[in-house]
UniProtKB/TrEMBL annotation:
PANTHER family for this protein: ALKYLATED DNA REPAIR PROTEIN ALKB-RELATED, NUCLEIC ACID DIOXYGENASE ALKBH1
Species: Pseudomonas fluorescens
Domain Fe2OG dioxygenase: 126-226
Protein name per Swiss-Prot or TrEMBL: Alpha-ketoglutarate-dependent dioxygenase
Superkingdom in the source lineage: Bacteria
Binding site for substrate: 82, 89-91, 148, 174
Amino acid sequence: MRHDPMSPITFDLFADAEPEQQPRLDRIGEQSCVLKGFALPWLDQLLPALDTVLAAAPFRQMITPGGFTMSVALSSCGALGWTTDRSGYRYTRHDPLTGQPWPKMPDVFFELAQAAAREAGFADFVPDSCLINRYVPGAKMSLHQDKDEVSYAAPIVSVSLGLPAIFLFGGFERSDKSQRVPLLHGDIVVWGGVDRLRYHGVLPIKDGQHPRLGEQRINFTFRTAG
């Protein structure tokens, strides 16, 4: 049974151990890479921290400026959270659903994002926003650029958990050909510098059952937004 996207997720911390996977760095661009399995050692801290965030800021499916309901459910934590509605895309200091400040970014989130950025060659990354996406089978993300941030100097750090995904990593025009990059549970994509404004997206998630997270893919996207 699929999880209600408006409710927090409770994870089984006593599930089978994660499969051993030797982390490696795969380059997908001049200043972009996939850190294979990088998040796996952090999972026992990440998942309960995520549950705490979602208890305060539940997942919701937002409306785009064009009036479409996103297939991906979203939440945020940190000083700034990303939102969208008929008036446009923007960062806010308060969750429009609850009226409260977005939950504080858990220390383990911040530390993982900094560690991944350093591994990818971005030593001074200080994220102030984490967008949390929940994909169920069939959900997707169309090609887009991350350009709502005040500055593009900092990289984007994107963590994949749960069901596998095909990440589309394109060029600087929407019409440019995209690489199809398979992402597995624990993989992290980092892009910045000359690659910072590349178009990217996610193909529809295929049916599946992850042994620890079930019928879903969870994605953390860390940014320096303010």
